[in-house]
Write a structure and sequence with these properties.
By secondary structure, the protein is mainly α. It is about 85% helix and about 0% strand.
């Protein structure tokens, strides 16, 4: 049952689509004819400004223009002949009121007799223009040959349309394929870039270790060279500071300080002996202790000066 319903709806859809195509085709024919008539009238007005047309041509185009205007107004007053709704009237006008403005029947009859031939000429001219636009080389060919080729023009245009549609479809397929290829290439390129980046990083780390080792060896060698230079500069400073004359003077000073120290030592020993002999004196002993402490401090100062002097001489 479901399949039968689907087939029935599909058949109705196809029928509606065919009817729509027929309606479109009918409208297109009517619209093309209407525009062609409008174009003919406009060309007549343009020609009338440049030259004086014949009386019969003027009557023909005036009758045609009036008929078109009346038909258009009547159509606007009654746009849909199939509708059942009551149309709103414009200023009380009806299609019959407008149709009363049609030209005389005799003028309309004469106009219709010429209209078919005029339309054929206009259509033939437009078709030849279309033909020469499609193939400019055919412009100078005889009219009979153009008519023959014109009969084949719809088939050629249909083939050209199919060819262009096929090329467009192939172009879309190629665009999709190129997009996929570009996506694949970009993916591969990103993978290669990541691999290359990891290789560069690995090589840089290895090279950095080797570079650090070289720098360390260089700094060690440089230190080994700089240390003797510093030692040499220190010795040079000492040599410039302590000349033989200064050393001789320092030795004399040392001897004097040494003799002074010996003298102070002797005085110290004498004071100690005196201190031991006066220990029983009570308060007078404190005075002797202060004197002894003073002598002791002077001896220590001189010993320190003698020691410093001896170090600088060595």
């Amino acid at each position: 049952l479901l399949g039968d319903a689907q087939d029935r709806w599909f058949g109705l859809f196809l029928q509606a689509e065919r009817e729509l195509q027929l309606q479109k085709l009918g409208w297109l024919r009517s619209e093309s004819l209407y525009r062609l008539l409008q174009e003919m009238i406009q060309e007549h007005h343009v020609t009338k400004h440049h030259s004086q047309p014949l009386q019969e041509d003027s009557e023909f185009y005036e009758t045609l223009e009036q008929c078109l205007l009346v038909a258009q107004c009547a159509r606007m007053l009654d746009p849909s002949p199939t509708t059942t709704q009551v149309q709103a009237q414009l200023m009380g006008l009806t299609p019959k009121h407008v149709l009363d403005l049609m030209p005389p029947e005799l003028d309309v009859k004469r106009m219709k007799q010429r209209l078919v031939r005029k339309l054929e000429e206009k259509l033939q001219k437009k078709c030849f223009t279309l033909l020469t636009y499609y193939q400019p080389d055919w412009e100078d060919e005889p009219e009979g040959l153009k008519t023959l080729k014109l009969s084949r023009l719809p088939e050629m245009l249909e083939n050209e349309r199919k060819r262009l549609e096929s090329q467009r479809e192939r172009g879309r397929e190629r665009a999709v394929m190129l997009q996929r290829q570009a996506h694949g290439y970009l993916t591969e390129l990103l993978g290669c870039m990541q691999i290359l980046q990891s290789l560069i990083l690995d090589h840089r780390l290895k090279a950095q270790n080797e570079l650090d080792r070289k720098k360390t060896e260089y700094m060690e060698a440089k230190c080994q060279i700089i240390i003797p230079k510093i030692r040499l500069e220190m010795l040079q400073v000492q040599l410039d500071t302590y000349t033989p004359q200064k050393i001789a003077v320092h030795r004399k000073i040392r001897d004097a300080l040494k003799s002074e120290l010996q003298r102070e030592e002797a005085e110290k020993q004498s004071a100690e002996r005196m201190l031991s002999s006066f220990e029983i004196l009570g308060q007078d002993f404190e005075v002797l202790v202060k004197e002894y402490a003073q002598l002791r401090q002077e001896i220590d100062n001189k010993k320190w000066a003698l020691h410093e002097f001896s170090q600088h001489n060595h």
